[in-house]
Write a structure and sequence with these properties.
Elements lengths: L2 H9 L3 E6 L4 E4 L1 H7 L20 H10 L11 E6 L9 E10 L4 E11 L13 H13 L9 H11 L5 E4 L6 H11 L6 E6 L5 H9 L10 E7 L6 H13 L5 E6 L7 H7 L2 E4 L10 H10 L5 E2 L1 H9 L5 H15 L4 E2 L6 H15 L8 H19 L4 H8 L3 H11 L8
Parallel strand pairs: 6-9, 6-10, 7-8, 8-9, 11-12
Antiparallel strand pairs: 1-2, 1-5, 3-4, 4-5
Helix pairs in contact: 5-6, 8-9, 11-13, 14-15, 15-16
Length: 427
């Protein structure tokens, strides 16, 4: 870090810190010490990385808050809201802004700024939340993280934008590709994280039940506790209910965010698409990008404490069509993890239909290569057989044979000699 940056951080009245590109704490200022109640010596050279947190609990809690999200390493300035340590659930909050410093090729360091918001008021008692509820909620937030979804840069940027707003979002893609998982991650990642995520499974509910859930007595549409309503397959909603949702959205002063997850746009009325398709994220089928299948498999593998797969397994998954996409892949890995403690996935761990595909691939790759066609030999055999048959028909008469074949007798004699035939062979 340059001397100018060191002076800027050291003299700032705002709590600031500096991380190396490997997330190691290189500097904190006096305002940071006053805010956290820790001395700089307790965190310097430590890693602000959830996988490498060590030391006393108070230090680990603060380092957890200082850990930059993955989007920062893509060159983005990001602001996240995190509970004041040692609490795991806010309010009160710290807003932490991460500013990446980079040269032409890589991130060289990260500057962090901490801004306290919603400070607790001692004269107002706060309602306690049970540890079980806290742990459950933290588990949901950890499970549904944008950083763990394997999105490409475009999808990640779209999801970041959607999470920072309450604008309606449309997630389009085939069954099993992870539309609901992405919707939950956007909900937990952004401004709605303190409110409820509601799933309405349209294919499984009758229209009157959906209308009652949304607009009945104490309906979800008017609840201030609801942050996101996820509508699965809105194309199955009746046209009048689609129109009712549009009218509610337009007239409500502060509606919850609506996220639609669909495989098709058929039977969607135009006004519904106009109202709720303001932002759209497309999730293509796994088979659309077979070159990415190994990376996706390896990413999902780590969630089940598996390290690697045998070459035979990797060949099999890249040739499989994955009709149910990520849902099917996760189900297969969960089944493998339930009966195998080995760190490597091998042929014996695969379900029967993938074993059959693997055997088929191996057998087809081991087939002997076909011999090249020797055209000259084939033509020679045909010519020899034709001359033999004509000689036999003409009772060995070479002149009659040459006339029948349409060639001169001298040429017939040369061919008889070349093919090892005699006139007597026609008898």
């Amino acid at each position: 870090m340059s001397q100018a940056w060191a002076e800027l951080i050291g003299e700032s009245q705002q709590a600031m810190f500096f991380l190396s590109r490997r997330r190691r704490v290189r500097m904190v200022n006096a305002s940071w010490e006053a805010l956290t109640g820790l001395k700089s010596e307790s965190v310097l050279q430590e890693y602000a990385n959830p996988r490498k947190l060590e030391g006393p609990a108070a230090v680990r809690a603060v380092l957890q808050v200082m850990a930059p999200p993955k989007g920062v390493f893509r060159g983005r300035v990001m602001t996240v809201r995190r509970a004041i340590p040692p609490a795991r659930l806010g309010p009160p909050w710290w807003e932490v802004t991460f500013i990446p410093l980079q040269n032409a090729t890589q991130i060289t360091g990260i500057i962090g700024l901490i801004h306290p918001i919603e400070k607790p008021k001692p004269d107002q008692p706060t309602k306690g939340i049970s540890p079980n509820l806290i742990n459950l909620r933290q588990g949901h937030i950890k499970q549904h993280s944008l950083d763990n979804l394997g999105l490409n840069d475009r999808q990640f940027a779209q999801a970041e934008l959607a999470s920072s707003l309450k604008t309606p979002l449309w997630i389009q893609g085939p069954q099993g590709i992870g539309k609901q998982t992405l919707a939950r991650a956007i909900h937990h990642f952004g401004i709605t994280t303190e409110q409820a995520f509601i799933l309405i499974d349209t294919p499984a509910l009758q229209p009157y039940l959906i209308r009652g859930l949304l607009f009945g007595h104490n309906g979800l549409a008017d609840s201030p506790l609801v942050g996101t309503i996820y509508l699965r397959e809105p194309a199955l909603l009746a046209a009048d209910l689609q129109a009712e949702l549009v009218e509610w959205w337009i007239t409500h002063p502060n509606p919850p965010r609506i996220i639609n997850g669909s495989t098709t746009f058929e039977n969607i009325i135009p006004s519904y698409r106009d109202a709720f398709q303001i932002l759209q994220i497309d999730l293509p089928a796994l088979s659309a990008h077979p070159q990415n299948l190994v990376a996706i498999w390896q990413r999902e593998l780590q969630k089940f404490d598996k390290i690697e797969s045998s070459p035979e397994v990797l060949q099999t998954i890249t040739h499989y069509s994955w009709p149910n996409n990520l849902r099917e892949m996760r189900a297969i890995l969960a089944e493998i993890a339930s009966h195998s403690q080995k760190p490597q996935v091998t042929f014996d761990d695969l379900p029967n239909h993938l074993k059959a595909l693997s055997v088929s691939l191996q057998s087809s790759s081991n087939l002997p290569k076909p011999r090249p066609i020797q055209l000259d030999q084939i033509l020679e055999q045909v010519e020899k057989r034709l001359i033999e048959q004509t000689l036999r028909k003409c009772r060995g008469d070479q002149t009659a044979t040459a006339e029948a074949l349409g060639i001169h007798r001298s040429r017939l004699l040369r061919r008889l000699q070349a093919l090892g035939l005699t006139a007597s062979q026609g008898d």
